[in-house]
Give the backbone structure.
Amino acid sequence: MFSGGVHLFTIRGIPVHFSPIFFILVALLAFNGGSLAGSIAFLVVLTFSILVHEMGHALVAQYFRLSPSITLHGWGGLCSHERPDRERDAALIIAAGPAAGLVLGMGSFGVQAMMGPAALASEPLLAAVLGNLVFINIFWSLVNLLPLWPLDGGQLFRLGLVKAFGGASGERITHYVGAAVGITAAILAYSALGSFAALIAGYLAWLNIERINSPSASGAIYVTNRFAADLAKKMEAAYEAGAYDEAYRLGQQVRAETNIGSKVLGRVWEVLGVVAALRDDYQEAWSYLKRAPERGRVLEARAACIIALELRGEAQAFIESGKLHKIPERLQDELRALAA
């Protein structure tokens, strides 16, 4: 929904993008009548806190090799990544965001306690920064854990309900509860925090009301496709035994199934791509190999496709990837000749 934006930097291999409206809305929150220095400090702290929260999600997603990226947008932040294979992995990724915020908030609170009131009074700007770090990362992390979809707490709540009651019932309960919590939060926020916070809560309530009778799911539904899993095992056995035609046939059957984990699907692309390359069907093989994990026989098959299809740019990229030594010398020489 909020993908894209301007790429500014990359952290630990995770690209970070900013939407221009993010700066506009954060500035509106920051420059609210206080001092200029205090407003700038709040803007920096808020941006940093959102980035820490999203990095919490992203680092766990990266651990599961799900290619995460971060976008800071008008409503906060978004960590995009491939679908996890298991509910447990999805829950860990979701929980890691507020956990990172709580760690930062508690750490800031600890620094406050160590400095003491007198030292903080002599450093008003530092005191303001620490106070904002505590408030944003503890208070808003706890708010984010409310069972209000699409907040992190609402997503965790939904995972549990879908597992307990099934997809359709779990979805409906999630959004009925989300609508009720959102409306209640809007009323409380208006009296305690003002109209802007109430507007956000009201918008979240409306999102849940819209989804109550929606025919589509509001997230991944983890249902084990045992038939596809059995087919994948047979495909693996045929592939390892050198029965490539049978492996190819089974791979095509598996890819036609639904609710397949990314690891199984990656193996399917590998089998289909390698077998198609062995048949000299390089165009078809390339379409599969682009999605297969770059390992073992996939690298050799990719090199063969690049050479056969005369993909000069891909040849140069392969050489620069540092994986050239993993393929036979004959293919190395042909790739260098093509890139030249």
